[in-house]
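Quick question: what would this complex look like in 3D?
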Amino acid sequence: MSDPSPGLNAEQLGAYFALMEVSSLLQYAVDEHLRADGDLSYVQFQILARLVDSPEGRLRMTDLADGVVYSRSGLTYQAGLLEKRGLITRAPSPDDERSVMVTVTDAGRALIAHVLPGHVERVRQLLFEPMRGRDLVTLGGVLGRVREHMRATPPRSAKPRAGRNRAE
Amino acid sequence: MSDPSPGLNAEQLGAYFALMEVSSLLQYAVDEHLRADGDLSYVQFQILARLVDSPEGRLRMTDLADGVVYSRSGLTYQAGLLEKRGLITRAPSPDDERSVMVTVTDAGRALIAHVLPGHVERVRQLLFEPMRGRDLVTLGGVLGRVREHMRATPPRSAKPRAGRNRAE
DNA sequence: GCTTGATCGTTCGAATTCTAAGCAAGTAAG
DNA sequence: CTTACTTGCTTAGAATTCGAACGATCAAGC
């Protein structure tokens, strides 16, 4: 089938829609649990989880925003909320006086530890339960490659940093 | 996450994060294009696309909201915007006086036709370009099953009008 | 030192989104 | 027909989100 307009075939369209629909449904489900179990929105959970997962438990605002795919101003707002609850602290970086280092507090770590089992359980139940055989391996591999591809090809969506795109 | 608790293994966690990250990045990218090319948000595009794709070009508000995974009030708001722009019309259903049938206008169809090629091209470029071999088939199959699974297991997000009576 | 330009984070205003409450219309039981 | 319950959509108000504008800091170049 050599059609002049290189669009998407039915299979591709189906996969695209399924991807967006699954991610939406999954986000709704886990968001509900996080709010009930720890009074956290999904974004807040992502922020804290990334911090807990980082080497020193701290990250720059910009890197955090890039990581969770979020606007800078939105992160400022959420960081304000999380700081008010004592889950993170903010301090200007010693190296870069203009950048702000965000650090998880013990309370933040405790909260993540508290909600993580239930969170993970929901994800397992909704996302991984219907998978069979090599589904998981393939899915992880493909999506990983796609992520790399998207991060390396910034159309204009997220602008990580202008200077160093190739040096990763 | 170096904790081998009975939750998700590293591979599952990676796939989960990749899924959410890819969908976010993809949504940002296509949203940007839709705004530039047709002054449409991603949600508005989804609404119009679903209508165009429906048999008569019309759907009930509720079915539309369930389809795009959106709150009822949010849909009311967006429908108001789209109606004001002449892209859809709203009229009470003859059968059920309380339900509202939303119909795409010719202008709505024309707008979707106008933005669709560019939209599809972006999706192809970002999502399907890095895929090889049977990646697409597997991805579509798995995500389709997962979607079915999630739709059949309503945590609370959408209630597709089934006999599920649980009075508290 | 002193410019020029880029980067970092916040603030501001407008737009969007959600939940809860409300109203209208259908359904079931008596 | 009336009462009670359910469903479909809208309204009201608060919370969240983004982009643009802003001040502050760094990095080069002179």
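Answer marked as accepted. The first strand of chain A starts at residue 58 and ends at 60.
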